DNA sequence: TTCGCCATGTAATTCGTTACATGATTTG
DNA sequence: CAAATCATGTAACGAATTACATGGCGAA
């Protein structure tokens, strides 16, 4: 479902687009929120068209199809936003590594946390380059906060490990 | 892979266990980090035994099998912890709702953010009840930080929406 | 005209969820 | 003995990743 919602959202926010365009939009704006490659997007659009959520508005060169959202699609999108309880499912490899830290000796643990810290910083850097005042604004500020608190956790954990080691 | 790692980690941290036990451990300690139900765990343990990562240490009543980690399993676990670059894949329905907020009018957006805030608070409450000083310590403090920053985001966003609306 | 990127797709496989099925043990 | 919970599993389906395949178009 969420993939559909994400696609409908992008079509609403930035207008009709081809599968390729949508894959690009995913990369550039939704990347810190939801991810999908073209191999998932192309077939999903076909199914969504069959379900009446999008239509092929135009066909261009080399099979390029421009999809637009339909009223049914808009309805589904708004309904989901207003009614859907976001699932609490979390699967974070980073948090899993944090969980398992006590299995390592201090020196190894420090190395792992250093690397995790690097990851948080890298993602933070990506988000920092993101233009303010754009559509993804709210998600961007949420992402920034969570990456910053990840970095802080790493710093605090490093300090604790060094004290102890 | 991560499911395997999580299972190997639990077996190392808390000793040999059956599939059922492991499902329970997932619920109680790994829940804010990684999730898996018994339907995923049972078959995975069989495959892991076939791959020599765990062995059936004992068999009890009604087919109960107690699995223990093997040296190969330990090796794989440590290697993963030290070498594996945690994937940056994020799929958060909450963040997706945040992303799509601008599609709603102010009143609806406020309702959505209120609900999101409630979710963050609920998860925070669960983590707050978790015993300190246990194995999952590091992951717990990371989770707490991230839930708190989620709640702060919701509060700030609500304030902004109310100013504007 | 060759190289690189644009653009679209399919196939195979793995990962994860939901629904179903079964029987043992404990508690009231 | 009935009901609840313990405990193990399978099957079907859906979501996601990886690998493969193809051809167009533009620039050097």
Automatic annotation (TrEMBL), chains A, B:
Residues annotated as domain Transcription regulator PadR N-terminal: 7-78
Transcription regulator PadR C-terminal domain span: 90-162
Annotated InterPro entries: Tscrpt_reg_PadR_C (IPR018309), Tscrpt_reg_PadR_N (IPR005149), WH-like_DNA-bd_sf (IPR036388), WH_DNA-bd_sf (IPR036390)
Xref: Gene3D superfamilies: Winged helix-like DNA-binding domain superfamily/Winged helix DNA-binding domain
Pfam families per the UniProt record, alphabetical: PadR, Vir_act_alpha_C
Domain of life: Bacteria
Extent of the signal sequence: none
Listed SUPFAM superfamilies: Winged helix' DNA-binding domain (SSF46785)
Name of the protein this chain belongs to: PadR family transcriptional regulator
Organism: Nonomuraea spiralis
